[in-house]
Amino acid sequence: MLVARGVTRVFGGAHALKDATMTLRRHEICGLLGANGAGKSTLSRIICGHLPPTSGEILYKNAPLVVGSARDALRSGIALVAQETSLAPDMSVLENIFLPSYAMPGRLSFAQLRQKAQAILSELGHDHVLPLDMEVRRLSAAQRQLVEIAKALALNADLVIFDEPTASLSPTEVDALFDIMARLRDSGKALGFVSHRLEEVFAITDRVTILREGRTVAEGVPTAGLTQADIIRHMVGRDIGNVYRKAPAASAAGERPVALEVRGLSAPPAVRDVSFAVRKGEILGLGGLVGAGRSESAEAIFGLRHRSAGKVLVGGREIPPNSPIAAIRAGLGMVAEDRRAQNIVPDMNVGENLFLAQMGRHKGFGRGHAARRKQARELIERLGLPADRMDANLLHFSGGMQQKVIIARWLLIEPEVLILDEPTKGVDIGTRQTIYELLREVAERGIAVVVISSDFEELLGVCERIVVVSDGYTIAELPASTLSEESLTLLAAPRSSAERNAAFLRDLVASHGGTAFWGLIDDDRFVCLSVAEAGAKEAMGLAAGHVYLARETAIPVALERRGPGFVTEADGRSTLLTRLSNRRGHDLGWIGLSLPPGSRLPDPGSLSARMAGLFETPQDAEIDA
Amino acid sequence: MSTPNRSLAIRKLANTLEFRMLGLAVVLAIILSFISPHFFTERNVFNILDQSVVLGIVAVGMTLVILTGGIDLSVGSVAGLTGIILALLLKEFPIPVAIVLAIACGGLIGLFSGVLIAVFGLAPFVVTLGVMAMGRSLAYIVSGQRSISGLPMGLQDIVYTTVLGIPTNVIFLIGLYIATWAWLTYSKGGRTIYAVGSNIEAARAAGLNTRFYSIFPYVASGALAATAMTFSLAQIMSADPIGGNQLELDAIAAVVIGGASLYGGRGSIFGTLMGVLIMVMLRNGLNLLGVSPFWQGTAIGAIIILALLAERLITWRSRRV
Fold first, then answer.
1. Which of A22, A83, A172, A571, by CA, is between 20 and 30 Å from A262?
2. Residues of chain A neighbouring B260 (CB-CB closer than 8 A)
3. In the CATH hierarchy, which fold is given to the domain comprising A2-236?
């Protein structure tokens, strides 16, 4: 459908692309991979007419494509879901979705557009959280990403390139997006998919094209015949070991002093009741879906957002609200989510950006740079920052390098607690690895680290303990080793589905009595996710969000044998366990009904069938339709 | 190794906008001295420096404000009002006390604007537009619609005293520029002003006192407008309620010619000085050439636009190569 050959693009003397080649076919999703700065975004933008190539040819539907502007490309049916969101912040969600249609001839019918937008958003599973009339300025980064995706879908283009569409989405949203992408593919469209996340590339693409330093090193290779190691070797030109270095056992953590404690934090509307504590030298993950209030909690802790209730204690001392300066002097550091908008000062050079937090902490009249020169030199060396380019513009560096500078900004002032919000967003895999190692190293030096991430795999790989936030409440706190990506996704589910699950359990109890629960079984441990009880005297002592050793619960035999049919304990209590999984075959844990001794046991077959139906939600049915 | 580095540094310097504006100022001076034999005389050079003082001082405040991404339209009328206040104070108080009080008045007016802008989040354009209207109207009311003369002769000393042959007002101007340059480059406050204009979110997250340094430029701008008017009064020895009229436009033009971005975060005090000199030289040269005052506005406007256009074209070309 589209062939780009020998595409070269020069930016001010540097080759962003050198002889790049890419082919997109109908009925296929082609992945475009490469380390940061390899030229993926440049190639996507050239194909979509946002940039003219310096040389090279592009054939579209067997005719040379001359795209002078993005509008020409849109007319010929090529759309781009841009990485750096290209939205008009003061216009509504609706207007942004249909912004391209302002350039099309003919009259607009807002009523029709509204219906269409509603349909697209509900496909994305976001019709209820993304009000069409809200200004884009007030949306979170992830919501903007969704608007960007909706905008491309609304164009009904023949060829769509998704440039890092999943960077700030949570797994459920990614699933919904993939469903849509698969459907577009099946309807005969050609799709391009740019991503850093290899798992996603394997999940959705048919072929991959890999760029390294502006050159195509592998073109249109079927994904099925590749392994992750193959792709990484192509991307970086060498082998990389396991990205995550496993956290040491959390056993020692108990004795270390608490570095940061948050009690009953509230900053409406996003944050309702958030409490957690993190110890010195510990890496704590703050997990949850996008919009659950994680970033907002971090901002409220740090004083960037007004907090209406709750206490924040650093090293046992309370810090005042609404004052980042006080937070920094107390020993907090924070790498905010949006690198471009919240961290980088674009008109300052790399060096000044590096010293920015030091200047904020410094009390004197001067800039306070001299006091930390030595530490700065050490940090620059350790992080592999280019010491000779300290006077260059930070924006000219890759996302990974920018992130390293921002993290170094905080390490320079030697904080007690470092909060990182999406530390590897838009960062290539090689740099991600160094950032993870850096976090580990920072923790080993006794700094408490809090990581917020929508990438649950990253969260599980890096953190020792995970606090789950949902709809502004902390709902669980679990060791990372007891969780998997799927179980974390379930825990983090928005309240609406959590409530649906709870209602389901209550129904079970109402018709059969006893205790109904839903949880995860991990060898000898049981993680309780949700529980309903008929009455206090039938209680088993389970509470949602807690981990139990199987032999310490009231149902050790059942948890070990796991059905089928009712399993009776030594004391006569009978339990039925049913395994749950979603359409994609992911393990969603176990649902159980436990009845006290002497109860009349219902038919296990029909009960199991009823239990397994928990996740057959109407929403899923819609997506299938 | 050091030679290519040095030539690189020189090329970098030559690529900065201030440096090119310095070139433009020099070229302008050479052209004017060829056209008019009176231009490059000692007397006229001092004349130009003398005429630069008022605009030069006001432009320093304007630079600070524009660096934070704001704008101060009120400087002209604040200058007019504080000029009247100074004239009245001089009748009651000794000269130094009167001057300090008048400058404090200017600072207070700036504080008023700054608080409305930084604390209440009002748009700088609108706030200072309002203050501009109020300032001019109060200048007429306080003065009784008349110019005030009969100021104490001692006031002239701040202009006509010379040190090593250089008038004190010129020395003050040079000192102010050097001090502001050092402050903007090497102090926490100066760098905070750049950070506020460039990315206030990031500045706040890094623990900088963004609120104070969003207000401070307006205070400085008001106080400097009053300071400039003090020198003006010492030269004219009378205060007129129309004094300082349209000073804000000249000051904004000088800052922009000097390479500052009206979006904030970019600009330098040296560039502003070049902008001031270019503005003053143009006006001086046109006067020497006997160009009608009514045509001078057109000429100056055209030259400003041409200078900025040339600058933009050069930047485009250097970016493409």
1. A172
2. none
3. Rossmann fold (3.40.50)
